[in-house]
Amino acid sequence: MRKRLILYILFFGGPVLASAQGPGSLLQRYNRTGADTNHISASLQLAAYYLNMEGAPLNMDSAAYYIRHAEQLSRRLQLEFYIYKSLRYRAMWNALDSNYSAADQLFTQVADLYTKAGNKEEAAFTWRLYGDCFAWNDFAHAALRRKAYETAYNLYKQTPDRQQTADLLGKVADADLNIGNLDSAETELLSVIAQYKTLKFPRIYYGYYLLAQVYSRKNLVQQLKQARLETATAFEEDPDGSAYDGGIFYGGLGNSYLVDKEYEKALEAYTRSIALNQTANAPAHYFVALNYAAKCYAALHRYREGLAFLRSKAHVFPYPSRVEERSMLMSEIALNAGMGNKARVQAIIQELKPLDQVLYDSIYKLRDYYSVNQYVNAGDPLMRYYIQTAQWDRMNAAYQLLDALPKKDQVVSAKQNMLEYAYYLDSARGDYLSAMDQFRMLNQINDSINKVNTSAQINELETRYRTLAKDKTIQLLNNQAAIQQERLDRRSLALNVTLGGVLLLVILAVAMYYAYKSKQRANKRLNEQQEEINAQNLRLSTLLDDKEKLLEEKDALISEKEWLLREVHHRVKNNLQLVISLLYNQSAYLDHPAAIKAIRDIQNRIQAIAIIHQKLYRKPGVNAVSLEEYVRDLVGHLGGVYGPRLRRIRFIQDLDPVPLDPAQAVPLGLILNEAVTNAIKYAFDETGGTISITGHLTSAELLKVVIADNGKGFDEAADPAALSLGMEMMKALARQLNGQLERKNDGGAVIIVTFRVGQADVAVPGRTAVPVG
C-alpha cells in the first residue's frame, strides 16, 4: 500500500467544484429554476455531487444525465462559459470511467478554448484537473499525467498566482517521482520548498515529505533523515495540521530512527503515529506503525510489555487487508520468540503459511516498490526466528523467495536485512569468503548510516522537533480528555433519543389506531348521510336547493376522506423514515460487521415500503402506485446506498405503467429490493455488469416482473435447504401476492414474479423502455 499522502490532499489548490449542499437542496433548486443560467449551474452542481466530489456515493449514470442536460441547454442559449464548463465535467466523467482517450481529447479541447479566450487561469486549472484524474500508480498513463501537470505549471507561471505555481511544480515532482525521474523530482521539490518559504506557506511539510520519498528511493540516508525531521518539525509548527498527515509523518520519522537502531526514539515516534492514525481513522497506516512499534519493543528486549501493547491496540480497527494481518502475525512471532514461547511461534507460523503464499504471489506479480520493501521488512521476525533456532533449510527457502523479488529502489533497511540473511546462510554453509563479502557490504551501509549521527544540523532539528512535539502532546492529551467526555455525553443523548423514539412510535401507533377508527366512523356517517340524502330526494323532489346543499356536503366528506388517507400515508412514510434514522444512529455504535450489515438490509427494506407511501400521499386519489415510477425511485435509492459498487453496474428498466394497489406494491417492492440488492452484492466481480428489470402485462390482469443480471448466477450445487433469508422472504411475499416466484440461471441469475394486479382494468398494456447509462 502506498505510504505517501494521497494526491487530493497534497499541494492544495483549485476552486471547489460543487457546493457543500446535499442532493435534496440541489434538486429543489434544479426543479425551481427555468431554462436559464441558474438551471445550468444547478445541473453541474448535481453532476459534481454524483461524481463523488464531496464524499457522496459515486453515481455515474446520474452524473452523465445532468452533465448532458447542462451542455445541451448551454448550447441552446449560446453561453460559452457554461459550454466550456460542461465539456470539462464531461471530460472528468470519461476519466473516472477510465476512457482516457476521450478524456484526453476533451481536456485538450477545453484548455485550448480557454487559452484562445485569454483565460490562462481556467486553462491551467483544466490541465490540473486532467492530471488529478490519474491514479499515482497508473504507470500506463504516467506520461499523460506528467504532461498535464507540466502544462498547467507553465500556464500558472504566466499568472500572478505564486501559490498555485508552487503547488503545480510539486505535482510535477510527484509525477516524476512515480515515473522514476528522481533527479528531476529532487530539483523540483527543492524549488517548491524555497517558494513555500518565501510565501510562508504553513503546510510546507508536504514538500519536505515528498523530498524524503525521493531520498528514500535514492538511498541517501543522511538526507532522508534530515528531510523527515524537517517534515515533523514543520508539522508541529502548524496548529491546523491534520491527524492523518501527522500519522504518516511520524511513521516515516520512526523508520529513520529504526534504521539508525535508535529504538527508544523510534518507539516514541511510532507511538505518536499510532495515536494520530487512530484519531484520523486511518487503519492501514495505523497497523504499519503498530507493527514497527512491536519491532522496537523486541529490539529493546521488552517482550512482555510489547506483547501487551500489541494486543491492546490490534483490535481497534479490523484488518484493512491481508498485508496488515501478516504484519501483526510477524510482530507476534518477534515478541513470543524473545520470550522463548516456541509453541506459540510454531502455531503462528502454521497460521501464516497460506496467507504468506497468497501475498507473495500478488506482490511478485505487482512488483510495486512500496509493496516489495514492506513485504521484505515485515517478514524479518520470521527470518530472525529461523536464525535463532538454526533452521537453515527453512531460512534458505524463505531467503530464495525474497531474493527473487525486484531489487530496484530497495530501501536501506531492506538491503540491511537481506545482507544479514545472506551472511548467516553463508556462515552456516561454511562459505566464509562469501560471508565476509556480505559482512563487508553490510558494514559499508552501517558506516554511511552512522554518519547521520554526527550531523550537527540534524541534531539541532531533532531538538527543535522534540520540544514542539512535547508541547503538542500535552495539548493532544487535553483534547482527548475533552473528546472522551463528549463521547460519553453523546452516548447518553443517543440512549435518551432512542428511548424517546420508542415512546414516540408507541404514541404514533395509538394515534394511527384512533385515526383508523375515526375513518371508519366517518365512513359510517357518510353512508348514513347518503341514505338520508336519497330519502330526502325522494320525499322532497321539489326542494332542489336543499338537495344541492346536501350533495355539496357529500363531496366535502369525500374530499375529507381522501385528505385523511393522504395524511395517513404521509405519517406512515415519516414514521418509517424515523425508524430508518434510528437504525442508522444505532449502527454507528456497533462494531460487529454482521450486525451493521443486518441493520443496513433492514433500512433498505423499510425504505422500499416508505417509497410506496411517499408516492401515495403525493398523488391525487391516493389509491394506486405506478410500477414504472416506483422501480425508478427504488433503484435510485439503492444507487445512493451502494454507490461505489454501482460504478460499473448498468441498469436497464423496461416497465409498463401499471397502477398497483398498495397492498400489492409493498410485497412487490420488498421482492425487488431483495433481488436487486443481492445482484449488486454478489453477482459481479470488479469488472461490473448489467441488471435489467422488466415488467409487462401479459394479459389484462396478469403482470410478469423479471429481475435478471449477467453475473455469476445461482449456485445450482447448493443445498436447497440452505436458501438465504432473502430468498425465503421473496417466496413468502410472492405467496402474499397470490402469485408465483421462479428463480433460474440464464446467462446470470434470473428471478420471475407473476401475479394478478388488483386494478388491471385501469392499466393499458404498453412498453416504456428506460435504459439507464
TrEMBL record:
PANTHER family: ETHYLENE RESPONSE SENSOR PROTEIN, TWO-COMPONENT SYSTEM SENSOR PROTEIN. Its EC number is 2.7.13.3. It comes from Chitinophaga parva. GO terms for molecular function: ATP binding; protein histidine kinase activity. The chain crosses the membrane at residues 493-516. Residues 663-759 form the Histidine kinase/HSP90-like ATPase domain. It catalyses: ATP + protein L-histidine = ADP + protein N-phospho-L-histidine. SUPFAM superfamilies: ATPase domain of HSP90 chaperone/DNA topoisomerase II/histidine kinase, TPR-like. InterPro entries: HATPase_C_sf, HATPase_dom, Sig_transdc_His_kin_sub2_dim/P, TPR-like_helical_dom_sf, TPR_rpt. Residues 1-20 form the signal peptide. Residues 516-567 form a coiled coil. It is an enzyme of class 2 (transferase). TPR repeats lie at residues 247-280. Keywords: ATP-binding, Coiled coil, Kinase, Membrane, Nucleotide-binding, Phosphoprotein, Signal, TPR repeat, Transferase, Transmembrane, Transmembrane helix. This is histidine kinase.
